[in-house]
Amino acid sequence: MNTLTTLELRPVEVPTDLDGPAARDFHRLAVIRNKVCREISGTDDDRMTPGELAPIARSDRHEKRLHWLVLVEDEPVGRMGMDLPLENGSRTAYVFIELRRDAWGQGIGERAHALLEETARAHGRSVMQSWVEHPAADGEQLTPPTGFGTVPLDHPARFLLRHGYTLEQIMRKSAFTLARSRAALERHAADARAASTDYRVVQWETPTPDEYVDGYAWMKSRMSTDAPSADLVVDEETWDAERVRAWDAEILDGGRRMLVTAAQHIATGELCAFNELVLGVDPDIASHQYDTLVLSTHRGHRLGMLVKAEGLLAWPRVAPASTRVVTYNAEENRPMLDINEAIGFEPVSYEGVWKRVLS
Is residue 243 classed as helix, strand or coil in its secondary structure? Predict the structure, then answer.
């Protein structure tokens, strides 16, 4: 039977009641997501329950999120999606197509991409961007214009090149084993404290305390402007107290926990660096290090090392069963990679960040 004759790209809404009959397709979407993630990475680092995924997948006033279940004879073989930032003037659609490997080469990706392009145009977007994990492989490699990092010319890369995408950036996925050397972490933290005597460390678990909301919001907004982004199209994000509270709710509603470690300038009370560590519902799989940033006006005081090391030292109290922490960094972000490597993070895999400008 021709696969395409039984192919369905079924829109999936994120249900309010995850136990109701309307949630069936969302549960199936979560299952196939986890299967494909494991097939690509060989680990369960990114596994999520439907309850964890739902708050992340729902649209809000800052981003419209669309999802489709890819079905062949009503069997899920993948999923696809699109995130549409709602910042004023945004022209970007963030897209993904994730298929089981046994579904490759049957024209399914072609149909899925055509729908994503049609949808992006319908929403007035002129740029499509995608993050794709490329497992290491021998053979020809691709290098982005930044000159930092490579990914193999594999099946996903050939697909993207065929559809007019250009490789713009490489993201390094790194992992750290918490039990490896607490003594070394303590030394790094002590050295960073000695270099940053004008600052103190403050920590909190989500929800964010009122006294830190405004400072945290400002730092989160700078992630969209200060982090290396190569030649990608990145909207400047506006963060305020309302958005921080929505972010807090996204973490808590999914049953996750987040520890924020920040550096506060003693003289002014300004928050000027931060690091986020997140634990999912399953305490035995990897924790994730989300955003880390030092405001440009406070660089040069080892604050990046300070917030990372202090966060990792405190993390066993929050997540005693989690032994592994995963993080992502741009390959050209040498200052942050230097910190990670000094701490003991080791490369695991690489993501290509791809861009297509629509005609």
Answer: helix
Residues 63, 278: Cα–Cα separation, whole Å: 21
The H or E element that residue 199 is part of is strand 199-205
Tell which residue, 259, 351, 248, 286, has the closest CA to residue 48: 286
Contact between 33 and 48 (Cβ < 8 Å): yes
Exposure letters 278-309 (e unless 16+ CB within 10 A, then b): bbbeeeebbbbbbebbbbeebeebbbbbbbbb
User: Which pLDDT belongs to residue 226?
Assistant: 86
Residue 301 is given by DSSP the state: S
Q: Which of the pair, 229 or 160, is modelled with greater confidence?
A: 160
Say if pTM beats, i.e. exceeds, 0.90: yes
Residues 6+ apart with CB under 8 A from 93: 82, 83, 84, 116, 119, 120, 123, 125, 127, 128, 129
What's the rounded mean pLDDT across residues 307-324?
95
Q: What span, in angstroms and rounded, lies between the C-alpha atoms of 289 and 152?
A: 26
Res. 72: pLDDT tops 70 = yes
Find where tokens 């697909």 sit. 159
Q: What angle do CA 345, 349, 354 make, to 5 degrees?
A: 125
Q: Which helix (H) or strand (E) holds 115?
A: helix 108-122
Q: List the alpha helices (DSSP H) in 227-294.
A: 241-253
Q: pLDDT, tens digit, for every residue of 327-353? A: 999 999 999 999 999 999 999 999 999
The distance from CA 265 to its chain's CA centroid, rounded to whole angstroms, is 28
Cβ proximity of 305 and 191 under 8 Å: yes
